[in-house]
Specification:
Layout lengths: L1 E4 L4 H12 L7 E4 L22 E3 L5 E2 L2 H12 L8 H30 L7 H22 L8 H16 L10 H10 L3 H4 L6
Parallel strand pairs: 1-2
Antiparallel strand pairs: 1-3, 3-4
Helix pairs in contact: 1-2, 1-5, 3-4, 3-5, 4-6
This protein binds glutathione.
Length: about 200
């Protein structure tokens, strides 16, 4: 299977961690691309008209996106350890995934706005609004962290990627102060091989 990939993308990292947790990493051939809204990776278009990463192209040529769909597909191939099958544990894991994806959406959009958009066109109220989403999601994660399940499920994988991305891109705006439960949980999860091996580089 081919995975359109970039080493800095937190959404791609979700897939890479899932693949490692499920012992499927060697089934993924990485096709590295640069995907940005102002310079789309057009080679992805035949497989995903949104031209976003991650996009997975399966061996029969059919594609899957976005990150949650690819992770659930890998989970189905690999034995179903990452998505609780039903009931409250499943809703909880999917909601945490949504919270973390929302944090990544805001952080990635902020990156586009504050680094790629020409300075004269940047809009401070919009920037403040995105940081408010990140901060609100961090506070919610802090409230929930002490009761996260022991299993490293899709919600926790996504949260690791969201926090790792904040460390990678926004180290000057630290998220740990005032969030001790989240800090402790993150440090513990960072000891996993799948998390260490997929840290963003760039
Ligand atoms: N909801 C998507 C988001 C994927 C996404 O936004 N990826 C970024 C890279 S970090 C991208 O491809 N950006 C290119 C663009 O927006 O055109 C997912 O979960 O996979």
């Amino acid at each position: 299977m081919k995975l359109f990939h970039a080493p800095t993308s937190p959404y791609v990292r979700k897939v890479l961690i899932a693949a490692r947790e499920l012992a499927l990493a060697d089934r993924l051939e990485h096709v590295t691309v640069t995907a940005m809204p102002q310079a789309p990776a057009r080679e992805i278009a035949p497989h995903n008209p949104l031209m976003k990463i991650p996009t997975l192209v399966r061996d029969d040529g059919t594609s899957l996106y976005d990150s949650i769909v690819i992770c659930e597909y890998l989970d189905a191939l690999g034995g179903g350890a990452l998505f609780p099958p039903a009931g409250e544990p499943r809703w909880r894991a999917l909601r945490l995934n949504a919270l973390a994806d929302g944090m990544m959406d805001a952080s990635v959009l902020l990156r586009y706005e504050t680094v790629m958009r020409p300075e004269a066109m940047r809009w401070q109220p919009w920037i403040d609004g995105q940081f408010a989403k990140v901060d609100g999601a961090l506070d919610e994660a802090e409230r929930e962290a002490a009761t996260f399940p022991a299993a490293f499920d899709i919600g926790q994988i996504a949260l690791v990627c969201a926090l790792g991305y904040l460390d990678f891109r926004y180290a000057s705006r630290p998220w740990r102060p005032g969030r001790p439960q989240l800090e402790r949980w993150f440090a513990q999860r960072c000891e996993r091989e799948s998390v260490r091996a997929t840290a963003p580089v760039g």
